[in-house]
Amino acid sequence: MPLKHKIKWGILGLGKIAQKFASDLLLSDDSTLYAVASRSREKAIDFGNRFGAELKYDSYHALIKDSNVQVIYIATPHAFHFEWAKLCLENGKHVLCEKPLGMNESEVKGLMQIAEKNKLFLMEGLWTRFIPSFEKVLELITENTIGEIQWIKADFGFKAKKDLSGRLFNKKLGGGALLDIGIYPIYLSTMLLGIPKQIKSSARLTAEGIDSYCAMIFEYENSIIVELEATFETDTPIEAIIAGSKGEIKMHRPFHHSEKISLDLSNGEKHVFNIKYRGEGYFHEIKEVEKCLNENTMESKKHPLSKSLELIRLMDKIKSQIGLTYTAEQ
To answer: Which of 76, 105, 149, 324 could form a disulfide with 13 if both were Cys (CB 3.0 to 4.6 A apart)?
Structure first.
C-alpha cells in the first residue's frame, strides 16, 4: 500500500554504488530522490539531472542542513561513514549507510548511541539481507531442508586494478578486501550460524598496508567448519555452498545477490530456484527502509543494529589477527 507522502531522500557521495541506488530509488512509488550532494558541483548537477533530483548540492553539509530531506543514503568511502552518519543523525536525519557501518566497534557503537538518543532510524546498507534469493535460503534453512549445517564455503574475489588513489587500495579511504568484500561471506556465516567460537585468519598485505587477500576459518560447536575468502588479486567463483546432514544449497555467482539457488538433497531430489531481484538489487533494501519509517520503527528487524555490531566485532578480531590497522586505530 503506497505511503501517504513520498519519503524524501538525499544521497551523500555520488560514486558507482550511489548511481545504482538512485536508479532503484526511481522504481519505488513511495520514495523520491529530493537532493544529492558531491564535493564537485559539476558532478552533483550531472548526477541530479540523470536521476531527477530536485536539488543538487556541492556541499555535504548543505544537504544535511536541508530541512526537507528526511533520510540520507551515505555512499562515501568506508573511512568517512562514521563522520557523515554522525553529522546526519545529529541534524535529525534518518540514515541508511553503506557497509561497513563503521571502521571499528567504537564507531558503530557511537552511531547506535546517537541514533537511539535522537530517536532516528539507522541501518547498515547490507543489501544482501533483502535480496529475494537470500530470503529463500533463510527459508530453506529454517525449514530444516538440508538438516543440520555441517560446513559452509564462500568466496568473493575479483582482479582489481591497483590504483593507489582509489578506494580499494587506499588505506586512508578504508581500503582492503576484508572491509569491502569480505563482509559478505562473513555475514552469510553469521546469519546462518551466529558467532563462531574460534577464528583463524591469514592475509597478504600490500606495501601500503591493506589486505589484498584474506582467508578465514570459523569454527563452531559440533565441529562445524566455515571457510571464507576475499581477494582483489584474482577472479574467484563468488559462490557459496551450505552443506548439511540432508543435502546442500548452492548460491550461484554472485552469491551476495544471486538470482539462482540450487538444492541437492541426499535422497536424490534436486531443485533449482530462479529468483529475480528488482532493478540493481538495492530496491529491496529501499523498501525495508520505507517500511521502517512508515511504521516509525528505529531499526530493521531483518538487519538490526545488533547484527552490524556483531559483524564489526568479528572483523575487528580478523584485523587484529592479520595485522591490519587504519589511521584512527594506530
So the answer is: 76
